[in-house]
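A note from the maintainers: we've had questions about how concatenated examples are separated. There is no special marker in the raw files; a new sequence line simply starts the next protein. For clarity in this README we add a label.
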Amino acid sequence: MLSERRLEVLRAIVQDYVGTEEPVGSKALTERHRLGVSPATVRNDMAVLEEEGYIAQPHTSAGRIPTDKGYRLFVDRLAGVKPLSTPERRAIQNFLDGAVDLDDVVGRTVRLLAQLTRQVAVVQYPSLTRSTVRHVELLGLAPARLMLVLITDTGRVEQRMVDAPAPFGEAALADLRARLNSRVVGRRFADVPTLVQDLPEQFEVEDRGTVQVVLAILLETLVEETEERLVIGGTANLTRFGHDFPLTIRPVLEALEEQVVLLRLLGEANESGMTVRIGHENAYEGLNSTSVVSVGYGSGGEAVAKLGVVGPTRMDYPGTMGAVRAVARYVGQILAES
């Protein structure tokens, strides 16, 4: 276990290195921070931190820089989440409140996160498999042609055309709409098949064929888009950090093109808590020089998807964690109100 003073020295090294991009020496630490000890004592503390693997000496520089292990201890023990200022919170709210539909919400969220953190932003679409039904609408377009509209609790809207085997009257259509909604509204998609399986028997024999077709298309819609979708933005921000990537930025860019890699990085969508993966904690080798900060978002306090940022390990962790958490909270509010 490190002493409180050595933890303070590590905190100061991380803060200075993130701020200046330069390896940090003992003299600079004692000048910039009120550590209450001499430069010789700080040098001794730095030697212990280096021996324990929390900091390292790059090349022949006299200064030290944090290692992945040092950043991890900083995030776990030393870094509070930096709250956003009132103008920043207001800007987030104003920007996201203008969204007109789910695609717009996701697109705005990506741009906002990239601007706030000046890093690469990744936003996962709410998954249908974790959604509930908000409403099912049925519209008669012609005597034997209907439109089915499925609206989820996350604001997702799916439309399907239904070609009925026989004409379907307005009264039967209104009856089917009412019976469907009474059974499935507020229920998880996985529960819907058993909730509607006996519905055709509630109708006249000549209408049962159409009811069965409507139900078949509804159930297809519930499982059709289970693949995960991601939107990414701010990739150009990485060019500002060229010297943070030891060899080349190319492996990072290649990894960011792989949706499967990014989904794995974000973690399981139903995990609502904040996750910070630092450097070699990322299983994908191309991202060993990056850190990923992610959090779940959703309506009603339950996460339906994840959002986060990817940047160099030399990251403003408190500020990034604060921005990611704040944006996730606002997106959740919008989904709850939509």
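[label: protein 2]
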Amino acid sequence: MKEVSFLNPEFFWLFLLLPAAVVWYIWKRKQASPTLKISSVKGFKAQKSLLAKLKPFLFALRILALSSLIIAMARPRKVDISSQTKSTKGIDIVMAIDVSGSMLAKDLKPNRMEALKKVAENFVAGRPNDRIGIVVYAAEAYTKTPVTSDKAVVQQAIKSIEYNSVLQDGTGIGMGLTTAVNRLKDSKAKSKVIILLTDGVNNAGFIEPETASQIAKEYGIKVYTIGIGTNGNAMFPYAYAPNGGFLFRMMPVEIDVNLLQTIAKNTGGKYFRASSNSKLEAIYNEINKLETTEIQELKFYDYDEKYRLFVWIAGILLLLEFGLRNTVYRSFI
């Protein structure tokens, strides 16, 4: 795409002199016209010739020539961004998401799981240069999407997350973290990050979370931990309803904050608490800012100088004005 730019736009200030030149020309013409008071000029009246009427045209030619010279001095040119190369040092990210039954609790709207899915989708959309994978876990864990640069695949995987009986219910934080580490341990990215989200206490799985965090540290993987859930009590599902849904009752929210803080500290990450929809969104926005991607962008510009055209126009106008003034209008001067 070609755009017109000016190398020396400060010369456009010279256009402010042109109105002054016009005023000076009008004043000079009045000064050059002698006046004589008589009772009647009827006998002296004569039709002005066409050449006499067009004499101010000479001054107009000069003004146009000066305008062209000013534009030429401003150096107009067309810029063509002919080619562009972009190299990116991206980040590999795995989101380890708790999908146990407690994620259906209604302290976030409409529930924890749906609130997370919306925020996670926006987070993925805001990381165009990174590779992202999804791990889901309850008492067990599995990779829903391996680390990929295809954001549409990742977003679709997030949309399809739901609570079901495929995974044994429970909260195996160590299982989820270890599965996420396995997805990143062979990564060659400059930075490797796990975002581990849970709403409970580790009560399942055969791998301890502390052990999993040490493995993450050995592989240079940073873990951001998020505890999702309000402070106090929330409506939790406790049984299936006859209509196929769930029955809910008020229960205390229990999150192992010390464990999540320890995991984050051991791996150089950070712990967050998402007690509402807005706080959950703010947490992902903060992680987005903390883990910035380095981008190198090279652009090649092709300049097509256009000032010569205006120099030619100014020269032709001045030659025309000079020729008319010294030939056709010589007797009028």
